[in-house]
Amino acid sequence: MSFDQAQAEAAALRDHVSAANTAYHTEDAPQMSDADYDAAKRRLMQIEAQFPELARADSPTQKIGAAPAEGFGKIRHEQRMMSLGNAFADEDVADFIRGIRKYLGLSDGDLPMTAEPKIDGLSLSLRYENGVLIYAATRGDGEVGENVTENARTISDIPTRLTNAPDILEVRGEVYMSHSDFADLNAAQEARGDKRFANPRNAAAGSLRQLDAKVTQARPLRFFAYAWGVVSQPLAETQSGAIARLAELGFQTNPLTKRCTTVAELIAHYHDIEHQRADLGYDIDGVVYKVDDLAFQRRLGFRSTTPRWAIAHKFPAELAWTRLDAIEIQVGRTGALSPVARLVPVTVGGVVVSNATLHNEDYIAGRNSNGEDIRGGRDIRVGDWVQIYRAGDVIPKIADVDVSRRPDDAQPFVFPTHCDQCGSEAIREEGDAVRRCSGGLICPAQAVEKLSHFVSRGAFDIDGLGAKQVESFYEDGWIKEPADIFTLRDRFGPGQLRQLKNREGWGDKSAEKLFDAIDSARKVPLAKLIFALGLRHVGEVASSDLARHFGTWDVLIEAVDRARPAELRHTQAEAAVLRERQAAQSAGRSAKIKPTRDHIWAQDPKVALPARAAWDDLVSIDGIGAVVAVSLVGSFAQEAERASIDRLVAQLDIQAAEKPKTDTAIAGKTIVFTGSLEKMTRAEAKARAEELGAKVAGSVSKKTDILVAGPGAGSKATKAADLGIEVIDEDAWIALAGAQ
Predict the structure, then answer these.
(1) What is the CATH number of the domain that holds 729?
(2) Residue 453 shares a structural domain with residue 505
(3) 253 shares its domain with 234
C-alpha cells in the first residue's frame, strides 16, 4: 500500500467509525455490527501502525465512546472511564500477554490474570462518599457522562448505602437486562401498542436514560460490578481480591470470573464461557482478561483510550440469510454518500435486523478499495438473497450473495454521481473509497448535519438547542449557518418572539431561556470552537492539539493562512490539475493525478516557498499530520466557508488555551524523540515532556531545541547534527526531566 492509498483509506475509516460511535453510544441506535465496527477500527489501527505519521489526533482509535446524550445533566468523571482493546483470535491473546511481559520486563513463568464475561449493556459509574450513593453517571465520552442518579437508585442491584466501605469509592460496572425480562417487557410494549425494543442492550440503555425515574423503576434492570474508579483506600492488592471485596459490600459480581495463570487457562475459560453463552440468560459478547496484580496494573498504565493491562477477547460473529429490498443513499456531514441496505426483517441471534451498511460503491460492486475481488467478485443487487453478518445488537453488513436465487430482472446497482439532496456533483477523489457531495453549505443534508454537530455535546452544547431543534429551525429558514444561532435574539425582537414561543413545546420562558443559553455559549474555549466547526478529519483530540500549540484563534488563523497564501488559492496550475482529474473521471478512467500541494508548488516554487515553510511547521506539530493539515488549509481557503467562519467568530468571545508550565528546565522548548527508548515508552516520554511545559514535535527542524536519540536513531539524528541541535541520550533525558 502506498502512502497516498493509506492516507485516503484511513480518512474514510475515521469518518465511518466516528459515525458508528455516535450512533451506538449517544443515540442507542447502532448502525453497524460489532464485527464490522471491530474490523473497521482494527484496519484503521493497522494503517496507523504501518504509517505512524497517519496516527494522528482525530482518529477514533484515540477516542472513547461518544458525547453524552441531550436531556441529562453532565458529570465529569474524576478518573476517565476507558474502553478496551480487542482480541479476535487465540494468538492475539498470546501477543497481549507477551506485550505485558516485555513492558514489565518479566521472564517466563506464571502471570496471574482474571477472566470474566464481557456484559453487553451500558457502562455506569457509581460514586459513594462515606457509604452513601452520591451520583451515578454513564460513561459518555469517557470524560463526561450523563447524570442518571435518580434512575440508578431504582435498580435493586445497586445499593444506596454501604457499610465498611472506603470514604470515597467509585464502583463501575454494566447495567443490563436478562433475556426473560426483555421478553416480558416487549410483550407488555406490544400489548400497549408501543414499539418493541430491538434487543436487551438497547432496552437497558433506553430504560436507564429515561427522564422520568418512574419509567426506569418499572423496567427490570440489573447491574454487575467489575471495576472501580477513584477510591480513598485500596480495595485489595489484586483484581480478584478487589472484586471479592465489592461482593462483600453488597454488589452483584459475575460468578464466572476466574483467576488464571497461563494463556492456555485463559483460552480454556474463554471457550467454557462461550459454550455456556446461550444458557446464561443475559447477553455477552466476549471475555475480558485483566492483569490480577494491581501494582502491575499501575506500572502498565494506560494508552490514550485503553488500559495496557486489560483486553476483550471477542466472540465470533453470527450469520443469517434474507432478501435485500432496497438500497438507499444517505448524505453525511462531510458530504459522504453512504449506501444502506433495507432488508426483509430477520432474526439473528435473537435480534431482529432490517438494515445493513454497504460501505461504498466498491463494496456493492464486489471489490475492495484496491480493486481486488471480494465475495468472489459477486455484486449486490436489489432483490438478492444476502447473507448478513452480526456480532452483537447492531446493524450488520452483507457478507455474501446467493446468485442462484437472484431474480431474472435484477439489475446492477448504479451508484449516483449527483447528490439527491441538492443536485451537486458527487465526486470521488483518487484513492478515496467514498464519493462525496460537492455542494458544501448549499446541500441541506450537509448543512443540517454540520449545524447538529456544532451544537452537540462535544462542541458548543447549547441547552435547548439540540439536533431536532436545529433541523426544525433550518427548515424554517431561521438558521442556515452557525453564526445565525448567535443573531437569533436580535432577529427575533420583542415583536417577533411569538414566532418561536407559539411553536409547540415553546413558551415565553423556554424561548428566553434558549436566548440566554446562546448568549452564555458565546464564551468558548479555543479547542471547542475548532472541533465545533466540523472540519473533515479534525476531531476533538486534533482540536485540543491545535489549541494547545497555537494558544489563540488569531495565531492559529495566521499560521494556516501562511501555509496557503491568497495567491495560491486559485492558481492556473491547480485549476489545470482539477480539470485533468475531472475529465478522467468523466471518461470512466482512474485519475492518476490530483492537485497535491507538491504539484502546485512545483508550478511556481518562488511564490510557494513561504507557504512550504509554513506548511512544514504545521505538519511538524505532534498529533497533526498531513491529512489534518490539508483539511485545515483547504477549509479556510474556501471563500464561502471562510466567510461563514469569520461571521461566526465575530459573534464569539474565544478563550485562549491554557498556557503550559514555564518554571521547568524544558518549558517552552521543542523536543523530538527518535530511535528506541529502553527505560520508558515513547508515549510516557511525550507525556512527561508535555507535563513539564515542552512541545513535542514529530520531525526535526530549525525550531527543535533537543533531540532525544535512542538506539537506532537515523535520519533525524543526522539532520539534528547538521542543524547544530543538542542531541542527548535517554539517560540524559531522564535526568533532565526528573523522571524516576
Answers:
(1) 3.40.50.10190
(2) yes
(3) yes
Residue 360 lies in a domain: no
Sheet with 168-176, strands from edge to edge, namely: 132-138, 122-129, 168-176, 222-231
Place of cell 499501575: 298
> Domain span at residue 715?
670-737
Residues 163 and 279 reside in one and the same domain: yes
Contact 138/145 with Cβ under 8 angstroms? yes
Radius of gyration of the chain (CA): 27
Hey, what amino acid is at 562?
A: R
Q: How far apart are CA 416 and CA 240, in angstroms?
A: 56
Contacts of 58 (CB under 8 A, 6+ apart): 14, 537, 538, 539, 540, 541, 542, 543, 628
Q: Is 41 a catalytic residue?
A: no
Find the DSSP H helices in 200-262: 200-208, 213-217, 239-248
How confident is the model over 720-728, as a mean pLDDT? 91
What pLDDT score does 582 carry? Answer: 47
Share of the chain above pLDDT 70, in %: 83
318 in a domain, yes or no?
no
| CATH for 23 | 1.10.287.610
Residue 1, all three cell numbers? 500500500
Q: How far apart are CA 264 and CA 347, in angstroms?
A: 35
**What cell was used for 209?**
436514560
Percent of the chain exceeding pLDDT 90 equals 37
Count the domains in the chain: 5
Contact 150, 201 (CB under 8 A): no
pTM above 0.85, yes or no: no
At 486, the pLDDT band (50, 70, 90 cuts) reads: very high
Q: The dihedral of CA 341, 342, 346, 347: what is its sign?
A: positive
The pLDDT tens digits of the residues spanning 429-460 come to 766 788 988 777 678 888 888 898 899 877 89
In a shared domain, residues 189 and 279: yes
> Burial letters for 318-336: b for 16+ Cβ neighbours within 10 Å, e otherwise?
bebebebeebebebbbbbb
Residue 660 belongs to a domain: no
* Burial of residue 52 (number of CB atoms within 10 Å: 0-12, 13-18, 19+): exposed
Q: Would you say residue 325 lies in a domain?
A: no
**Locus of grid cell 459573534:** 651
Q: For the domain that residue 297 is a member of, what is the CATH number?
A: 3.30.470.30
Q: Indicate whether 88 and 8 sit together in one domain.
A: no
CATH of the domain at 532: 1.10.150.20
Note whether 237 and 252 are same-domain residues: yes
Label residue 391 by pLDDT band (50, 70, 90).
low
Q: What is the pLDDT of residues 202-236, one digit of tens each?
A: 889 889 988 888 889 999 999 999 999 999 999 99
Compute how many other C-beta atoms are within 10 angstroms of the C-beta atom of residue 246.
Answer: 25
Of 41, 63, 102, 118, catalytic: 118
Q: Which residues contact 534 (CB under 8 A, 6 or more apart)?
A: 333, 334, 449, 450, 453, 454, 459
